[in-house]
Amino acid sequence: LPTARPSRYASALEALKTVYGYDAFRGDQAAIVDQVIGGGDAIVLMPTGGGKSVTYQVPALVREGTGLVVSPLIALMHDQVDALRANGVNAAYLNSTQSPAERAQIEREYVSGQLDLLYVAPERLNSEATLRFLERGVLSGIAMDEAHCVSQWGHDFRPDYLALGGLGERFPGVPRMALTATATPETHREITERLRMPDAKHFVASFDRPNIRYRIEAKTEPRKQLLAFIRAQPEGSAGIVYALSRKSVEETAAFLAGNGIDAIPYHAGLDAATRSRHQSRFLREDGVVVVATIAFGMGIDKPDVRFVAHVDLPKSVEGYYQETGRAGRDGEPAVAWMAYGLGDVVQQRRMIQQGEGDRAIQQRQQQHLDAMLALCETVECRRQNLLAYFGQESGPCGNCDTCLEPPEVWDGLVPAQKLLSTIVRLKRERNQAFGAGHLIDILRGAATDRVRKMRHDELSTYGIGNDLSEQDWRSVIRQLLARGLLVAQGEYGTLALSEASAGVLRGETPVGLRRDVIGRVSRSAGGAR
Ligand code: ADP
Ligand code: ZN
């Protein structure tokens, strides 16, 4: 018969104090721990930094047996196990980086009941051999971290998570927990269903991160804007800059470094030694700025990140929330800054159109992008918009750009009609379609070679938009695209009418536009570099 690990602590609070040195539980922690120690299931939605780890580790120390932790992040696993061991907890992990001998040793420890906590990657639980092995010991609980990975709706779907739904049947009587820092109502529902936890108690924390100041500005010269933003932060601020491509990461890091910022790149194309050197510099030294693809940051626990900057538009609000959530985990003021422009909208729409995946997947991606665009273009409180996305109501926050400097709204109906009718004419009269640049040239009456060669100066709309600057026009087009009043098609992002365009042409759809503010740089806590 398997041996159970005897409980180490009489009470949860005793474990909390002894192992972690904390005086008290925070927020929902005590209630969650109670539920699990009592043998019940729990679904925990808590933002990053909310303190999820304690909620599955403490029950493992109090209940008999070994707590199984399912985590997709090998790096995180490693760090957590090291930290637990340093505090006298008998924790271990099983993963593919280990030698067969190391694995055998840990398996023996588990079966003989010596482990408090055992971390495994989800793909392991997809194997019958692992399940049989787990049956040879005693589990005190099963914690499924990053549970949103089970959601096809979300941005992080991992097929291996689907198999976790069978663990309840396989290990009856063992309390299960699903934990995540991403939780739209839709994802929440999918976690409950797919992990088969109908009787779980739900713990939904507020997703507000009040110390993070949100700022989104129109993109004109992204690197210069980024540099100005970073220079306005207090001396020695550590930060993360997210860019979409490796190339953009490299170039941005080089640009910042050339301008006196201690910036280093991080992406999957760098060799392992460089990556780990850069990561440890970021963690250990002051004032390092990591320029990275979104792969960076998952599971990186650096509490004093003072800013997170995006120079490319994230694909979803969940992604944006998670990435910006890496700022200010210590509760001190922090800034989430983003530069976003017409090019981002065109590029992401194109990536969706040309991406793999069926119609349903494309539609989902489109909806994710639309929500992200709505957040970018809102003239109301950013935080309110963000929290509403997670199904949480709130009032204006007073700590975002739109609250601090309410944007001006102007009537864009006439410019929108000028643009749309130019597109209509080109299509009807000449069966032609163009991207934003050339359309703006026509509207502004620019005498470019292309305009002359194509005789677009003979169009009746030629020059009718010269009351607006090129930048204004880009802003108009961006906002029309963001609202679906215009669509960008094909490889070159040529602009075309959408079904909703008709209402604009008829003057029935109001077109209130946001006046862009560029380069109004934020100071999070005074002082400048
Ligand atoms: P999450 O996994 O939700 O992102 P963590 O478990 O990593 O959050 O906890 C975030 C931070 O809060 C950590 O630095 C942790 O040490 C701290 N923390 C968690 N619970 C408590 C508590 N009860 N009292 C004090 N600090 C806590
Ligand atoms: Zn606000």
From TrEMBL:
GO terms for cellular component: bacterial nucleoid; cytoplasm; replisome. Residues 222-372 form the Helicase C-terminal domain. One of its GO terms (biological process) is DNA replication. It is an enzyme of class 5 (isomerase). Its EC number is 5.6.2.4. Its cofactor is Mg(2+); Zn(2+). Coiled coil: none annotated. It catalyses: Couples ATP hydrolysis with the unwinding of duplex DNA by translocating in the 3'-5' direction. Residues 33-201 form the Helicase ATP-binding domain. Keywords: ATP-binding, DNA damage, DNA recombination, DNA repair, DNA-binding, Helicase, Hydrolase, Isomerase, Metal-binding, Nucleotide-binding, Zinc. Belongs to the helicase family. RecQ subfamily. This is DNA helicase RecQ. It comes from Microbacterium sediminis.
